[in-house]
């Protein structure tokens, strides 16, 4: 079905203005995203060297808890989280159970020996700065949500760009870059060629990025929904004065799910637990389940499992989006492919910006750099 001239004008205007609105922000995201693709490899350089320990025995979580609390006696322990690639458990303490990132201490320990490690906190250093810039422009949640909106605008630009590119297929071979034309035509062809080659990848990364900007509100929905209902069941029960050892909690979970890859353990009273339960989260050990989280609520007075449940679909969507966004599914080869595609996306954004700047640059009469009229028509995609 042929698209009319007027309809194509609307699509072109949509592509032009949606692109202009978000291009600067997308360039920032692509540039900061490049080192983040290799965040695990870069973080590896800052981690301590682990002494070879033949035993795979789990260190006592109670000992780790005691050592962590000794560093900040007045701060509550919020949760422990297990490193996915190293034998390391990090204890997170905060000025309160709901403390923000700037008010917490992250204390890493060897998960086999319980030894305190000298690794830097994950919220410090160059990579932490780059991640904060990439995720929120250093503006916290408002910046994150703004970038999510820019991602939505960019997705509109992607769709409209495909529609605008369609007429070129009728008179040029796919991904053609003409060498005997004005340089602006070459720039247009380059923009179209790189854009159409990367359109599937850019769409996936954009959608996963939009999802990741919604982590905070979606987590709040879970906390204020399902978790709040569980808390409400215990509102008339007196607060616990003593908690069972976290080692008993871990043992009971592993007895029930022997192949679980433990991800975290939240202490009673933290935002991810109830005042009467530990929350333990774990992932599977197969390609289909290694990014899907399951949780168990553990009675903090007895250590017995109160309930086990799947996380809501929207939290599963977040867990799947993280490795997909940064190319963490296939090891180093996939990360190299992600890097190449990222650079190609930068080329698409940059050439598109140059096309617009050149078109709107004031042209003097007799200027030898004047863009030919037929080139302008072709750039508009209306020939």
Structural class by sheet pairing and helices: alpha+beta
Oligomeric composition of the shown chains: single chain
Low-confidence blocks of residues: 362-383
The domain tally reads 2
The helix content is: 40-55%
**What count of helical segments does DSSP give?**
12
- The ordered H/E elements are HHHEEEHHHHHHEEEEHHH
Radius of gyration: 26 Å
Task: Compute the number of strand runs.
Answer: 7
Provide the β-strand percentage band.
5-15%
* End-to-end gap: 17 Å
Apparent shape: elongated
Largest sheet composition: 7 strands, antiparallel
Strands side by side in the biggest sheet: 3-2-1-4-5-6-7
* Mean pLDDT rating: 85
Give a short overview:
This protein has helices at 5-37, 39-46, 61-71, 126-136, 140-169, 183-197, 199-212, 215-232, 246-256, 313-326, 331-360, 373-379, and strands at residues 77-82, 88-94, 104-110, 261-266, 277-283, 293-299, 305-310. The protein has 383 residues and is an alpha+beta fold. The chain has a seven-stranded antiparallel beta sheet, with helices on both faces.
Describe the structure.
The chain is α+β, with helices and mostly antiparallel strands and 383 residues long. It folds into two domains: 5-40 and 134-198 and 332-379, no CATH class; 55-127 and 214-326, no CATH class. It is 53% helix and 12% strand. The chain has twelve helices and seven strands. A hairpin with a 5-residue loop joins strand 6 (293-299) and strand 7 (305-310). The model is unreliable at 362-383 (pLDDT under 50).
Spell out the blueprint of helices and strands.
Blueprint lengths: L4 H33 L1 H8 L14 H11 L5 E6 L5 E7 L9 E7 L15 H11 L3 H30 L13 H15 L1 H14 L2 H18 L13 H11 L4 E6 L10 E7 L9 E7 L5 E6 L2 H14 L4 H30 L12 H7 L4
Antiparallel strand pairs: 1-2, 1-4, 2-3, 4-5, 5-6, 6-7
